[in-house]
Records
---
Amino acid sequence: MAKSHVSTTVNGDPVEFLCDTAETMLDVLRNTMGLTGTKEGCGTGDCGACSIIVDGRLVCGCLMLAVEATGKQVTTIEGIGAPDRLHPVQQAFLEDAALQCGFCTPGFIVAAKALLDRNPDPSETEIRYWLAGNLCRCTGYDKIVRAVQHAAAEMKGQPA
Amino acid sequence: MTYEQKNLRVVGTRPIRHDGPDKVTGRANYASDFTLPGMLWGRVLRSPHAHAKVLSINTDKARALPGVKAVITGADLPLPPPGVTQAGESAINTQHLAKNLLARDKVLYDGHPVAAVAAISEAVAREALGLIEIEYEVLPHVIDVDEAMKADAPLLHDDLFTEGVEPRPETPSNIAKRIVVSKGDIEKGFAEADIVIERTYTTKAVHQGYIEPQGCVANYAEDGQAMVWCSSQGQFVIRDLCITMLGMEASSLKVIPAEIGGGFGGKTTVYLEPLALMLSKASGRPVKMTMSRGEVLRATGPHSGSSMTARIGAMKDGTITSAEVVIKFQAGAFPGSPVGAAVMFCSAPYDIPNLSITGYDVVVNIAKVHAYRAPGAPNGAFAFETVLDELAHELKMDPIDFRAKNSAVEGSKSPYGPTYGPLGGIECLSSAKNHPHYKANLGPNQGRGVASGFWINIGGQSAATVVVNRDGTISLVEGCPDIGGSRASLAMMCAEVLGIAAEKVRPSIVDTTAIAFNDVTGGSRVTFATGMAVVQATEDAVRQMRERAAKMWDIEVDQVGWRDGAAQEMNGNRSLTISQIAQKAAKTGGQIMGHASINAAGAGPSLTTHLCDLEVDRETGKITILRYTAFQDAGKAVHPSYVEGQMQGGVVQGIGWALNEEYIHDENGRLENAGFLDYRMPVASDLPMIDAVIIEVPNPNHPFGVRGVGEAPIVPPLAAIANAIYDATGVRMRDLPFSPPKVLAALEAAEKTKANG
């Protein structure tokens, strides 16, 4: 079957790719574009390791068909932070030891950024429910929740 | 090496881990992140049956599919010579491993591999799997451990005769092994007791649940030299298992460790790597293989489900006089469950004069079990620590006081043989008793549970190289994959010995050709054993730098000391920094590199006590954890944040095991919940913060007093939660998991008994 041609924007850059209609956005990010920071933990939308932001919405890359990216703005972990400065969520994860194996970390950081973009002052409960779609097997979530609280405080302290 | 108390400047602080920036930016490469030019995609065809004879396999149509480059079956993997490969806490039988990698005449579980293909894309590989024709004759299966032990149970292996029974049985059975630990005279002990309680417990198989599925890339060259990139807990064990399976030489296979996305014991063996090598050899191209989550749950080592009976007797003053425990473990399709650890360690926090603990290793039709964090110990502690709670209630003693009265201390003889050195058991108990958590008020339907746990921790083989760079920085070379911050803790110990900042030491985990053999990252051994190798390698480098300084000053080396990252003249005030020495290295004898390769002995056991508060919803049966505090003896916390992290993570795995996680099979023995939606691990909204209280009773056999920390925290939660449920409801639950339907049924049964009583 002929491949579909998709034009989209990934991390601010215009991107074109060809894909099978059955391919997921996760497949294309990892295997076609080489953006392997987005991880596959389950392929069924249960673990959140493939979290990406599409037009401001947090989605699982494994549940989105690649052809759906047409005309959209896609942000992956590679698009968060700048070369000279980590995003406050990334910095807080480092300072608060909020990662162990690090495999779920990109998904958590993308999800946490999406939370703080819409709610700069989340309660602990709001953080826990927002991140309930991201599985971490190493940390027990304690330090992750604290890192998100820490990042929120840092971001509020910064001039917009 | 022995412990010395000293003023520490790096050990005990909380620097940012060296691999952190790569891991928060997505740069870190895990197993499935590698790609090679010309790479093929491999996939595995798995048995849909729990137990069946394989009558025929026809791969002709799959081979004929355009884009398919190789197809392999069990016929392509000859059985290796019999033998055992040590892999941390597991001993791997090589012939069983070969039969597990690719089934031959029989499939033994839902998910057992029967064939594998390599093709130009994943889609073609999947299509090819559908074209492989296999004729099965389905056999009766057995999964429950008690059922599998019955004389008329379906037999998995007709050549399996129970070890550890005299005389050797004449008929085969599913009972692979019987092991016994005993001391004193239990019946005499029970006769001395004023109260004896006997209870029976069951637990279901659970999975390690690492978020990264197994994956690898293999490249087998025409001259027989091969490389594998993979995620594992030990590149050397992966190499050794692969070369044993494929009849290769050790120097012909380079295994390159990718970052590992969690292991918890489950990544100390091979599932894909030998198949990828075979497919690469057959196709002449690199081959990538990754598992789906369903494959991970169906076909990689879960942890044993179990059935246990514990009988413990105590006197009115609270002295435990005798304990008898029988523990039966599912081994999965091949022998080798961790029942031995349950037998040796379930009573290990206590000094009990009369003991008899018997374990059975039983094959059943699920994937071969594999190590899972403190393998076996949580099961044993679940039974032992809940009977202790019942005894404390009957004796009207505080459960912490009751445990403290019977605690093993330095000089007590362990149930498994050796006499204990310094132990932190009493310190954990008293710290728990004095903690505000223990005095906090509870509301209606809320309860508090206490349980303790033990893990032995291991030492083993580790190597380290300390390379001194011209600018005074250090390249630390080591061979143990970093699952949870070990790069940081090892670099910190190196920096401490040198007297420099942790950031000046850059740790690297290298491939199997770049350092001597290292045992796996497992057994809570890396900070202890590899840490000791790092300290010795660093001391070697310091010795060499002192020698060079002596040469530069033209004095005797015994006149040169070492302080604050510099050689110091003892009878004078000259000093030379690391970089000043390193820049002259070419003229003073060549580049400076310290090295150590050791087999570390003297690991110190971890003792731990947990407090759990929970609330039971009487309408739904749902349990909510309200507060949790873990107290654990770490010996010395090198990087306290990552010690806390190990404790918090272990606790939460235990909470998942206690409340929700279980393997559910249909009547045909197929795993019904082979995905994260239905294999329900804890998520952030299920939990409160987990408080971690680090206690430091130094291990006398480590220069900084380090014990291990990773495994002990998963030991107490099952019992702590069971005991808290009783405190909240008056109901004793003894069959895991305590999922809402089971809690509701138990509450209703208790109501009925009360109404009828």
---
Amino acid sequence: MAALTPIYRTPVTFYVPVVAAAGALAGLFVGTAQGSGLLGIVAGAALMAALALAVTRVIESEKATRWGMAALFVAGGWLIGGAPGLILGAGFGWFFGWFTFWLYEGRYRAKLPTYLTPGQVLWHFTFRVICGAILVFLITPILVVMPLSFNAENFFTFTPEMLRLDPAGYSLKHYRDFFTNDDWQQALRNSVMIAPVATLLSVSFGTLAAIGLSAEHVPFRRPIMAILISPMIVPLIISAAGMYFFYSRIGLQGTYFGVVLAHAALGIPFVIITVTATLVGFDRSLTRAAANMGADPVTTFFRVQMPLILPGVISGGLFAFITSFDEVVVVLFVGSAGQKTLPWQMFTGLREQISPTILAVATILVGISICLLTVVEMLRRRSERLRGMSPG
Amino acid sequence: MSDLKSTGPQTADAPTPEDALHEAAAYAAREQVHAPGGPADGPVLAADGTPLKRSLNRALRRQKMRALALIAPLLIFVLLTFIAPIADMLFRSVENQIVSETLPETVVALADWDSEAGAPPAEPVFAALYVDLFFAEAQKLHTRLGTRLNYEKTGVSSLFRKTGRRVGRFDTDTYTDQITALDPGWAEPATWVAMMQNNGNRAALPLTARAWDRWTAYLASEGDDPAKEDIEDVLFTTLYLDLVATGGSGAADARIAQAAAAVGGFETVTLSEQFAAADKDWLDPEVWGTIKAFAPNYTAGYFLNSVDMQKTPHGIEARPENQQIYMMLFKRTIFMSIMITLSCILLGYPVAWILANLPTRTANLLMILVLLPFWTSLLVRTSAWKVMLQQQGVINDTLVWLGIVADDSRLVMINNQFGTIVAMTHILLPFMILPLYSVMQTIQPTYLRAAKSLGATNWTAFWRVYFPQSVPGIGAGSILVFILSIGYYITPEIVGGTTGTFISNRIAYHISSSLNWGLAAALGSILLAVVMLLYWVYDKIVGIDNVKLG
């Protein structure tokens, strides 16, 4: 239906006021920052209305307008706010250049059904702006952490130097601190020692069990499944409390082994879920064919079944790894000072001695999780392709 | 038999013995109908001569066993590392052996005492307490017991500690002096060792025999020899009490008969006065009532505490107003979890809708924005919110820069309920969006168009056609978010301050700071019960098999 809606130029009475309103909104921000909101609104509206009229009547070329507006606003931003104003100005200019012509040429209706009333069109775009705002809400905290981790001061907020984009306001000192501070390095070592072993445990046990669970006739399938999934459902604080009580009874509390066992238990549901999901699409006649050709069950498993379900196993393993790597509640109770992991160190850092090194660690962790997310997504696609569930 | 698929010996990988079983049954029935008395009249046989039915049954059983054998290692692992701890926690929430283990004699002696009479118990109870407290003090157990009973009645802890210091200096050495004066042999540990090996003596001196056993057990645990350690006053006291009570009849030892004849003229010590001198609270019937109320091995006391009630000598009562916090915490936890769930619905619904209705390529791109926070460490996100929300934080700075908020009246957005709700909504939002998205993907867009073409307004079409179809997604997401938020610990701990904390923070406090593990276990059990109930509902609505990740 996209191309069916005819587009035509809108009248001056429509696009000029809309652009002026947007200008007023932008002016409000600039104005309040400079001291007078009202003046900002009026000036913004007037300026944008005049510009909109000018570019549509005089220049009439969108490309030229965009560059022109961007240049104009860059100059204006530089005069008002220095370097950050320059960048903001470039963004504003580019946006308004595009926005004016988008409205003027009626392109905003191109992808909408012809029959929509203006009110519905307005709602359509308002809705998108709302969704955009929610997505911004989702992503902003993570984006804010990254630049702050390069802060040259020991503050948790942007310093004036940072806002001026002054290189002196930025430094790698928090990263340096992370890589040289013994506490952080010990925590990193502990995390790296605990997570892979826990992952290995949950993946090896979990994969076997998932294969057993996906057989056709499994007695007590539901209760078994409920027990195996329960570490994911039970609130962490309760798992932590129970493990603390029980492990101190049997002498595992405060030991490396105890933490590994606890983390392995927490990672198991993720392995079970991902591997069983992969096994749903597994063609059983392949194992039968292998057996038919004389392969014993072990050979069949490693040469036929395993390569096919490997993507699921690996992504289950990654889930288990990230669970252990991120976990703080259980290790807080089951571990002792000798098992202090990275999240534990961050937790104490956030509660007690606040240091922006946490933000540097956070940025590194975000980097790691982006890598893992990419790997899981690629594995999922590969697995779907292998099983012929999606084309390509 | 040619149309039977599996007539040969069953391999381990036989596909579906059950199907074959049905097939065989159908085949046999058909044979019987068509060819009565024919060659296939008997049971259908497998190639090795066993009846096919049995052969197939065996294969089916083997398949089941194989599946179970594959599951067993993990099942045992989870049972040991996870289910056992949970069971241990449930057990601890009612376990109360400390009173009867530390004060065994007192608990028995107190059984006949009426806590409603308003008077402290009689002398024998104090004598029993003297014996118990002596051994408890020797093993340093009395302070633990005092701490335990202090949860129920304040002041008991210091009472036990104070009396524990005094119990060794009671005037009971009067008995020691008088008995050893009768026969110096009494002062020899060897005399006692020999005497206590005789069953007749033990039967004549029951309290002494029990005290002696505890004495030898204590010495053994210390690595000492009972035959070499000096006899303590407490044993002479029990000896005196036994001799008065039984007269030493049946004792094999002449020394006992001699002492029994003499005890009538002994100078006595009133133990209740000794205790009262140590601390006059021992004459308070409330203290004794508390000991009696918590004497059983299992108690509902911790559960009563966690709903702001308490078990008193006079039955179950509400706690004093100023000590009632748990109901408030439970209510707050539930209220805040509901708020978080509602805000997740409010924010998640539009995003899920737009993800489900955009072209796949764009939707996948936007999906990254949802999945990235989902994959990011919880602590990273919590620290991000701490950075954003604090008074010198990013949001306040921006507001001040824009002139919306004055510099000296920065908003307080952290260390309160608002901070917790915002941060946890952000953290749990992906858990709402993902189930909603997967449900909305299955809703046909043609339904909406059909409704509109039938004259429905946008709103009616959404509310009457689209929304009801998306309700399962809302239900799944809401229960998931609610279950997750009700047990959250880290985020409320960091951004919650005092007014934004959950019941889980209180559990952690009782485990690591106040060391009231029983109460922590009881609070945890209640929380677990709520979560299990919700989990059951979730299973009914969505099914645990349908949990998807990413």
